[in-house]
Amino acid sequence: MRNLRLDICYDGTRYRGWQRLPGVENTIQGKLEQTLSRILGEDIEISGSGRTDAGAHALCQVANFHCESTMPCPELLAQLRRYLPEDIGIYSCKEVSERFHARLNSKTKTYRYRVWNSETPCVFDRRFVYPMPEKLDLEQMRLAAANFLGEHDFSAFCANKKMKKSTIRRIDSLEIARVREEVVFTVTGNGFLYNMVRILVGTLLEVGMGQRSPESIPALFGAKREEAGHLVPAQGLCLMEVTY
């Protein structure tokens, strides 16, 4: 039994997220499994490094799967590029050790969230940014962001009310930069809860608008979901990197 790794990118606009769901056909995982099963002539189940939200994107998602097929990786890569839709791309396909698992072996993930902070229209990147023309105080947001660094209980930043596993996560870096009309959030951590990055960004945007103070952030750790900020739209979110 071979274990193959795929490095993947996708525009998630028209998909219901990464995870295959019962009765839901339009998912990234489902589309990949369907295409791989047809190419290899056997049932394929893939494991991704993380479950991106419906409408979110990935510049570098990682997945692995096991198969009996002896098809060479270059040939499989060519077949995938031929049959997958144009909004799902495969960078590479390679054989890895039997013990490699895309999610369980990952050390950090980096996400980027783009806010179009201007009154001018953003026509060509509209599927990848959250339009928000309100004036934002970046210095206050950066002061607030510093409170997220380290290991904390992010239960207030999880949209899954039935979460039974630990809500402790570690944030290694959280940068906020203005790039012309955009405000870009880049966050790296050892793992993220359901909707965690989008709620974190929503909370920081509220700081930027003067609706909450940087000093109020520590009180949110271990608190209830209702106490943190709003959930920003998925289209601004992109998985940028996974390290192993």
Helix content: 10-25%
Radius of gyration: 19 Å
Shape: globular
Distance between the termini: 22 Å
Helices, by number, come to: 4
Secondary-structure element string: EHEEHEEEHEEEHE
Q: Could you describe the largest sheet, including whether it forms a barrel? A: 10 strands, mixed
Average pLDDT level: 96
Strand elements, count: 10
Low-confidence stretches: none
Strand percentage: 25-35%
Which structural category fits the helices and strands?
alpha+beta
How would you sum up this structure, described in words?
The structure is a single chain. Helix 1 packs across helix 2 and helix 3 (about 140-145) packs across helix 4. Strand 2 and strand 3 (about 55-65) form a beta hairpin. Strands 1, 2, 3, 4, 5, 6, 7, 8, 9 and 10 form a 10-stranded mixed sheet that branches. It is globular and about 60 Å long. Helices cover about 20% and strands about 30% of the residues. It has about 240 residues and is α+β, with helices and mostly antiparallel strands. It is built from 4 helices and 10 strands; from the N terminus they run βαββαβββαβββαβ. The mean pLDDT is about 95.
Condensed summary:
19% of the residues lie in helices and 30% in strands.
